[in-house]
Amino acid sequence: MNDATTTIDPELEVIFPPEAIARRLEELAQEIVKAKLENLLVVAILKGSFVFAADLIRAMHAAGLAPEVDFMTLSSYKKARISSGQVSILRDMDLDVRGRNVLVIDDVLDSGRTLAFAKDLLAARGATSIRTCVLLDKQLPRAVNLEPDYYAFLCPNEFVVGYGMDVAHRYRELPFVGRLVRH
Ligand code: IMP
Ligand code: MG
User: Fold this and answer.
1) Can you give the residue range of the structural domain that contains 101?
2) Is residue 109 situated within a structural domain?
3) How far is the CA of 112 from the centre of ligand 1 (A)?
4) Would you say 102 and 130 are in contact if contact means Cβ atoms under 8 Å apart?
5) Would you say the CB of residue 25 lies under 6 angstroms from ligand 1?
6) What's the CA-to-centroid distance between 127 and ligand 1, angstroms?
7) What is the whole-number distance in angstroms between the Cα of residue 171 and the centre of ligand 2?
């Protein structure tokens, strides 16, 4: 799509460039403001959402919000590109969610298992409300019944990398979302 990209890696094609992501995050933050969530706690699901979450919480600040932020590392994919179906907690969050309005942030909503697991866990721990926000919503039949409350972009059913997302630990540093092109 642009020269910088092809120089970085000829196997990558940009789907969502940095400017489009930044614009969309401003809109998302405005949507989140409208929900008027008191005492808001953001829980970012690591690792894949760390860049998205970092940008979104700053867009939320610009929109007048002051959420607390915590992190939880969940695993469903391991090194494979297909879901193992099982979600496990690799590192738990620190804060108590009891009585809090929680916004769970993840990178990709695919089968839905990761976010369903996170929602069930936070509900069992006593969160007052739980909303979900993903960068990319893959338009697939889900393994579980879950649609995001907020999403930045609908995503083609392809494996994507960049903007925090990896394949085998690579490409997280890229400022755009790209797809791998097979030659
Ligand atoms: P789900 O549990 O099947 O909804 O999968 C969601 C998780 O799988 C996300 O947290 C991502 O980390 C990962 N994932 C799904 N699709 C992709 C992709 O195309 N690229 C990178 N990670 C992905
Ligand atoms: Mg993830």
Assistant:
1) 15-175
2) yes
3) 9
4) yes
5) no
6) 24
7) 14
Query: Whole-model pTM above 0.70?
Result: yes
Q: Is residue 121 a part of any domain in this protein?
A: yes
Nearest 5°: the CA angle 84, 71, 108 is 45
At which residue do the structure tokens 């008027």 appear?
36
Provide φ and ψ at 83, rounded to 5°.
Answer: -70, 140
**pLDDT tens by residue, 29-44:** 999 999 999 999 999 9
Cβ 113 under 6 angstroms from ligand 1: yes
pLDDT at 142: 84
Provide the CATH number for the domain around residue 24: 3.40.50.2020
**Does a structural domain hold residue 2?**
no
pLDDT at 149: 98
Q: CA–CA separation, 109 vs 144, rounded Å?
A: 11
Which residue's C-alpha comes closest to atom 12 of ligand 1? Answer: 48
The number of the ligand 1 atom at minimal distance from the alpha carbon of 113 is 2
Structural domains in the chain (count): 1
Tell whether 135 is covered by a domain. Answer: yes
